[in-house]
Amino acid sequence: MLPHLRSVEKGIKAIDGYLNRVSKGSKLDENGRCRLQADQVGIHVVANPGMDVLTFKAFINFLPDPATGKVLPLYYHLLDMSDAPETGMAYFAIVASEEVGGEHDVISVECKRPIVDISFDEFTACLKAVSSVANQWMDRLEEEFDAPKVP
Asked: For the whole model, what pTM was predicted?
């Protein structure tokens, strides 16, 4: 198990280097988190060494008011889009309000990869996938489903 721990530690150092390359001075904080701006959205890069998982996450829209009747159609739409070819490595998720410290649940666009052996190309591909899907869909989700954008 010790070699795996060294590989994860090496991966964390590589991720810090990748973060600095894409945004000068950026690195993971003591909680394994870093936020980058990509067009209209902030992308959170979150390392979980214990699970060997690196998550790229953008919070894009709040869920619509349940009284509008648009929540269930939105869920179906997000499930369909999570498997659509144009989303690539990214997928949609519903994040509980407690996770984001808010009053409303939010829609996120996410991508997950192992920390060990992640290359710079794969790192930037994940950033690009989350950024492009988030920026492409946040306005449309607001217009089509009354899901207000996260400021």
From this structure: 0.90
Overall average pLDDT of the 87-94 stretch:
93
Contact 63, 105 (CB under 8 A): yes
CA distance 103 to 97: 6
Burial class from Cβ neighbours inside 10 Å (0-12, 13-18, 19+) for residue 121 reads exposed
8 A C-beta contact, residue 53 and residue 114: yes
- Interatomic CA distance for residues 11 and 54, integer angstroms: 10
d(CA 8, CA 114) in angstroms, rounded, equals 9
Q: How far apart are CA 88 and CA 147, in angstroms?
A: 23
DSSP string, 78-132: HHHHHT-GGGTT-EEEEE-HHHHTSSS-EEEEEEEEESTT--HHHHHHHHHHHHH
Q: Residue for token digits 């997928």?
A: 91
Domain ranges in the chain are: 2-145
pLDDT at 21: 96
Domain 2-145: assigned CATH number: 3.30.1460.10
